[in-house]
């Protein structure tokens, strides 16, 4: 397969992968980058394909850091054709294949620093036609192929520092044709000279760093550096002065010669460089005589009378006398005396002749005090003064009176324990004051009284415990006050009065135990940032009023990491009134309950972090985020959350980034996720997500949702088996909620086992009859069941038990078929069809006869077939509204004996029955004659019942009522 075919296939596969799941195995897409910026850091992937194969072709920025990658094979990034910025630094790369970057025609920045690359293929950058920046620092390169940069003609920055390059001529050849190259960094290599063959550096090159090499000479043509503006040759300890002989340095704007063997005065004498463009730091100018000689030369060489900037740092200067710098041209810009051995600043008396100086630095020296300077010469043009990183213990009264117009004063990172109450006297134009990282314990009301223009005051990391009344009273223009990292336990009632313009107040890392609302009254309409993290604030009970109620413009509030046990109680009223708040930090507390109305007033909140805030809060209450409709980012890591519901998160309609990693959730509601229409980033790592059917919808959501990135989904393991992965656990057995199915199936089984015996007792014959009717219908008998009366074959079907057959043959047949009665009767032993199923015969007999006469005896009641016959007849009686059933009792049977024959009792309650008069009655002959007359009349009566009569029959009284009202021909006849 050709390279282009491989590229096409790879792109298609990547596109398919993206449409099936917006998640990546080893990368994270930045939340607000619209799928264009990816970070792949701290991964264990051994092959580049494991990292980039599932990234979309739309990727523009890619960072791969701290992985065990050792090799970049051909076509490593062929699926990322739009890539513009690629960082693969700080890995373990040793080999880069010739076609590793093939197809990256849009790439502009490539960083391969901090690897173990020892060689580069000449064709490596062939396709990188738009490359502008290349970083190869901290590798093991010993040489560069001559044509390696032949295709990257737009390259303007090339960083090759900290390798093992020793041949400058080869480097010059490789970059000679780069007509757009502006910056070349060769520091920390093994170069011994700048000697080269008949090539020149590109004239576009203006910045050349060759520091920390082993240069013994320059060895280049005089014009070789004629277009360089910035040249760093520092830390080439063997580089001599004579190396610059005849070298054209006229275009140099900055030359750094620190820690070389160059004698600076001799160098200036043989060089055509502008002396004001030389950095004199670290050039061995450590005594007055050398400085005096330099100053005289500078004054001679400079055509202008003034010197813009002068850097004398790192020269081990111990002191400067009043005359040392008086021979120098007037310094109008900055003088830097940092990293020397100065022990005193002497109120800057050594600068007395440089009245126009604007910026003075004496950082990293040995200054121990700043003395009284009220009566000293004033430097009225000075604007910036820095004594950082010294050993200053005390600052005396009027210590800066000689610099009345400075705007920035930096005294931070010293050991100042004593700041005189008038130390800052006279600094009425001061705008920024740094006193942080000292040993101050007290601030007084007059300390800052003259700083009427101060805008930024940093007193962080001192030992202040109390802020006294009116300490900042005159600082009406102060915008930022940083008191963090002190030991402040309380403010006196007027401690913050006067701060009418304060916008940012940092009180973190103190020992405040409560929040006093009266402190903020001076700046309640201006404060936007309030940092209270890492204090000792703790609420025992609910508060009645919010201490922030009047901070109407507050946008950032930090309450995280309260000591020692955190905010165990978060009062429901604490955040009332913060309608403008944008960011809220509550991390690293131990809140045990979040009330549903805790965040109700934060309607403008866009960022909320609750990481590690609520250990023990296993369930967030519904409505807790109900008013946070503008929230775009929610960090809820390690809160102990056990569920994720729509009732809790459903109102976060603008949420884009949601971090839920390291919680206790076994399931996530897809309905809740679907209620977040703007969600683009979801982190659920390190949750005990179960690979069960309950999470089947979640798995489907992660596979098919192309809008939400689920961070490292493919690394998410199943709770019960870490070797199984959540994204592909088997859901084929899930057709729904198996637990629900088991519940309903078990319930149904229990219900059936309970109700079937009842049905068996009550409806046995009804069901059996229905079954037989169905069988008859199936065998094409159904049409005969519903024939009209005139088409019936028999007048009556006689249902009797075989033990009563003699009575039927001796009494019934002669009286109904003989003696002029002429009824046609159906008897089973005579009229049933031979060879036919007995059930079919019974059904046919019942429905082919206008009446069914049941000859009831105790034997009859015990016969299954007789029961079926009476069931069929009673069905026609009750369900088809046909008066077809006649009951004839051959012997007296008590009601108790009939109680188990439900259908027969029902018939007896609603129909007339006949009792055969035995020989023991008074007049048996007359009684039997009456019996046969009644039976003949019953047979002759029509079978179709009127609706009203039938309804009345169904609502008739109990048998006892019937026996009391025997006046009708249908009464029970008991002769």
Automatic annotation (TrEMBL):
InterPro entries: Leu-rich_rpt, Leu-rich_rpt_typical-subtyp, LRR_dom_sf, TIR_dom, Toll_tir_struct_dom_sf. One of its GO terms (biological process) is antibacterial humoral response. Pfam families: LRR_8, TIR. It is a single-pass type I membrane protein. It comes from the Eukaryota. Residues 1-21 form the signal peptide. The chain crosses the membrane at residues 738-761. Residues 946-975 are annotated as: Disordered. SMART domains: LRR_SD22 (SM00365), LRR_TYP (SM00369), TIR (SM00255). Residues 946-969 have a biased composition (Basic and acidic residues). One of its GO terms (molecular function) is signaling receptor activity. Keywords: Glycoprotein, Immunity, Inflammatory response, Innate immunity, Leucine-rich repeat, Membrane, Receptor, Repeat, Signal, Transmembrane, Transmembrane helix. It is found in: Membrane. The keyword Glycosyltransferase does not apply. Residues 792-939 form the TIR domain. One of its GO terms (cellular component) is plasma membrane. Belongs to the Toll-like receptor family. This is TIR domain-containing protein. It comes from Astatotilapia calliptera.
